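Fig. S4 source data, part A: sequence.
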Amino acid sequence: MEFKPAWEDAELGLFRETVARFVEQEMEPGDEQARRQGHVGHALWRRAGELGLLCTDIPEEFGGAGGDFRHEAVIGEELYRRSLTGMNVAVHSIVAHYVLNHGTDEQKERWLPRMARGEIVGAIAMTEPGAGSDLQGIRMRAALDGGCYVLNGTKTFISNGFLAGLVLAVVRTDPAAGSRGISIVAVETQDLPGYRVGRVLDKIGMKAQDTSELFFDDVRVPASHLLGGEPGRGFSQLMSDLSYERLLIAVNSLAMMQGAYEATLRYVRERQAFGKPVAEFQNTRFKLAELATQIQVGRAFIDRCVQSQLDGRLDAATASMAKLWASDALGRLVDECLQLFGGYGYMSEYVIGRMYMDARIQRIYGGTNEIMKEVIARAL
């Protein structure tokens, strides 16, 4: 059974082949090492940049490939259906979009071409030890001192944090102004005094992806690196790009569902029990039928959301529905698939075991699914 997206044409099919070759030849061989060390290293990012696989929906004038959201979706699908999560291309792309949509011309020209080449890896630093989904709880300060902002504070759970060369730090520039006192400051991390990357966090899943603590101790950043050039706009900047992020999570979740189903189908056809393949038992056949149906139904909805994104009319509530449904459905489907693997499914050497652990975060990052329900409820 084929789960081909409705939005894929011949050109995107060829692009998918390029992405698949990169994934199979450049990423898969080093995935176990990346899982052990907690990151994929800079060389892989630079190689992806050389092949034109970064910032694919950023205009060519800023060094991107000039494609659209579908190109980003193809990359995510080819990674997540194999549970190759070491390169968080989604976060890199989200950072690029913050710069593209809100940055000054000088900021776009300074950072986007380098991101597209993989010379700098992008990260966005929102979460703090005491502030997660509630962005108004952010305490990290950025005080203007002459021509610089001086940053003090701690960020945690930062995807791409260990390798990041450009960190969009969400900070308070006016502690008394509530959400109007939040700004985004772009931090170029190389050899930056006062900036320190803490440990690569020991997660239960996404082992190959670097997720780190970041420490800022009197870090001086040029005032020209304030995103958009005006303080107090950070909250609205963050809100305006959340639909893009949440749709990427939905696309990746659906891709992992497909990958889990395909891996399970192969396994039950080969695995023998009581003298015949596990696939011949009625329970197995009925379960696979249910799982394939879930993927097809999800594909119809997610494809519609992708088209809405392309048309510029994807609203926050619908993007939240996509993220909520796909990440919840992924958790249920991977659990069912692991059961069909039996004891082997509990082994991390099998992709289904890795998927079981990697899938759990989809319901948390990009805004927890409880936050998604709140966003949807407000739109009813």
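Fig. S4 source data, part B ends here. The mean pLDDT is 95.
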